[in-house]
């Protein structure tokens, strides 16, 4: 009986530790993203908000308006979502999948797109922007 109670206690504490890990990771804020595609340095802005128990957000690029994030999820410190980027001067758009790991005020991860049958992956680094009063 003591063995069963001990195992139950250990499993319960492990479950609480896992839940605490996800809560200690805070994706909310504005993030400046930097990456390189085709030999060119690029930037974007990622904005994450909390709406009740759900996360919502947008991504914007210097040459285009904001795009709403789709399927935004935070699981075990990893933020995943997709965004549709409309290409400037055309009717073309690209669906981009993101998988990013949050570490305090930094994010690192990958963006992936499929455009014209060509799949591309690139590394992304982001820093949470300070809010000035």
Descriptive notes:
- The protein has a single domain, classed as Beta Barrel (Lipocalin), CATH 2.40.128.120.
- It is built from one helix and nine strands.
- With 133 residues, the protein is α+β, with helices and mostly antiparallel strands.
- The protein is globular.
The description of the largest β-sheet is: 9 strands, antiparallel
What structural class should be given to the helix and strand makeup? alpha+beta
Which stretches are poorly predicted, pLDDT < 50 over at least 5 residues?
8-22
Q: Round the mean pLDDT to the nearest integer and report it.
A: 83
Strand content: over 45%
Any guess at the CATH architecture? Beta Barrel
According to CATH, the fold-level topology is Lipocalin
Q: Main sheet: which strands, in order across?
A: 4-3-2-1-9-8-7-6-5
Tally of domains: 1
The best one-word shape is globular
Number of strands: 9
Give a quick set of tags describing it.
9-stranded antiparallel β-sheet, 133 residues, Lipocalin, 9 strands, single chain, 1 helix, alpha+beta, globular
